[in-house]
Amino acid sequence: MFATLFRPSLDRAMRAVRIDSLEDQDRAFSWEDAEPVRPLPRKPFSFITALIREKFLGRLTLMVLAVVLGQTIEAFEPYALKAVVDALTAAADGKPIEGLGLTGWFLVLLGIWFGGIGMYRVYQVIDIYTSPSIRALAQKRMFAWLMGHSPTYFQDNFAGKLGQKIKQGANAILGIIEILMFDVIRVLVLLLVSLGLLWTASPFFSAILGVWMLAYVGVSAWLARHCFHLSEAMSDAVSSSSGRIVDAITNADLVRGFARTAFERSFLGHWINEERFRSRRLRWFLVLMRLFQMASIILLLAALIWLAIGRTLAGQMTVGEFTLVFTLAFQISSTVWHLSDRLLNFFEELGTLSEALEVISAPHEIVDAPGAKPLAVRDGGIEVKGLHFAFPDGTKVFQGLDLSIRPGEKVGLVGRSGAGKSTLVKLLRRQYEPQGGQILVDGQDIAFVTLESLNAAIAEVPQQPGVFHRSVGDNIAYGRQDAPQEMVEQAARQAHAHDFILRRPTAYGTIVGEQGIKLSGGERQRVAIARALLKDAKVLVLDEATSALDSESEHLIQEALWTLMEGRTVIAIAHRLSTITGMDRILYLEGGQVVEQGTHSQLLALGGRYAALWHRQSGGFLAAAE
């Protein structure tokens, strides 16, 4: 009955998920995971507050109440001990025992022990259904924002580092919340109750505790600021070294192929040494903080107990009141000392979360324009008007490019490396933003349509196809996730991938490995082509779509691609000119401008740059060998 909660696009994933219990529902794909991306706060406490307000305010309030009640009950333990000692003293002196009596106060003491323990167990039970959910929501929010960054952002950051930031940041949130809600609140409640109890024994002792509290908190806050910066630097060093480890592992074959294992060890050693240096600085500072905290606690203990002994010997305090002061002093010292240790963890976690948000929550480089509407593709016509684009380093690519591609026209782009072929495709998909000019699809300026709809309208088969570490069937179905298995297999047949898939023991359920490592280059390319076939978009981009195939496979794929091209606008980037000879028009780009255009035969008859390139490819190698 829960199936209606999920979109049709999740049907494929749901086939493997059985929803019978609350835990199963938590594991299942949920509709909320497809909600619009929300802005990600850049400050740690702003992010934590946003998460709590969204779903967890009620549960966290109950957890705080449980801690307050538990610590309040425990804080009265010294008072109950005082009453027991006073009752014992009265009994020893043969005086009448006032109040609840010895048995009564013992039962009160027993109730305090069980009451405090009970409240903390309530806290833990509520936390079972809170902390894992907070961590999951934090990861979802950070991942959603991360995926909205432009290709340039991902080129500038290690993939392993970004993934680690999401995990580290989410785990840090739990540590921060637990310390604030459990440890800090416990100490605050204990100190407030202790002030009140000490006031009953002696206002003088209460004043000493109050002054100590102010001094301790003030100095600790001053030290905390420096500790936070050191923790942030430490987190950054850990992420950097981790990212480089992942980078080396990902390219293990390259390292072996060039016999550069020793070099990589030395290169990585620099970053690990930097991590060690920053860790050492942080640890030295933590030692100094602990020294201050220990000295402060010992001085408090010494002052309270020494003064209590003097007043007791002078007859100004009863033995029970001395017990109250003595027990409170040790209770306060042990709790504050525990908090001191936890505060060190707190600033480490805060530094980790801050550094993670600093990297992930950076503003998106390319965003939807205000009031952007979905792209409505009817025919697939493309028009480029006065396009200007230069890379951030100043390298100019297009300076006033004009280009028109008719609906259903098949256009090939050729030219030397750096001519702007791939850049033009990236601009079409708004992976880069131009500095001037327009690109229109069916008369709609792509700068004013939603990015999601623009990418949905374009199918692309790149030269290096991306493949998920999932089953081959899921990789093909990524082009249309609500497609039935029959359509997936039909697309695979058209891409001539069906036969090699069936040769695997688990057929379409075969896990292809990271980056499709278990598939050959040609097999990965055919999976990508099948995925594009299944997407069935009106605009098709082919970036050397047959470059990784052998001659026989290339012939079969070309047949499938021509079938796919029918009725669609096609832009094909090619370095091997033989793959685009049948295009309606071929554009030769040079210096960001179209210097030649026409059909294959027209360009050969022109005898220009295209013809020269064609002759080099078709006969140049043979001539050089003669």
TrEMBL record:
Superkingdom as given in the UniProt entry: Bacteria
Main location: membrane
The UniProt record lists the keyword Magnesium: no
SUPFAM superfamilies in the record: ABC transporter transmembrane region, P-loop containing nucleoside triphosphate hydrolases
Residue span, ABC transmembrane type-1 domain: 62-336
Protein name as it appears in the record: ABC transporter ATP-binding protein
TM region(s), chain numbering: 56-73, 102-123, 172-198, 204-224, 284-309
Residue span(s) of domain ABC transporter: 382-616
Keywords, ordered alphabetically: ATP-binding, Membrane, Nucleotide-binding, Transmembrane, Transmembrane helix
Function: Part of an ABC transporter complex. Transmembrane domains (TMD) form a pore in the inner membrane and the ATP-binding domain (NBD) is responsible for energy generation.
A GO MF label: ABC-type transporter activity
Keyword tRNA-binding: no
Topology in the lipid bilayer: Multi-pass membrane protein
Gene3D superfamilies: ABC transporter type 1, transmembrane domain, P-loop containing nucleotide triphosphate hydrolases
UniProt-listed InterPro entries: AAA+_ATPase (IPR003593), ABC1_TM_dom (IPR011527), ABC1_TM_sf (IPR036640), ABC_transporter-like_ATP-bd (IPR003439), ABC_transporter-like_CS (IPR017871), P-loop_NTPase (IPR027417), Type_1_exporter (IPR039421)
Compartments in which it is found: Cell membrane
GO cellular component annotations of the record: plasma membrane
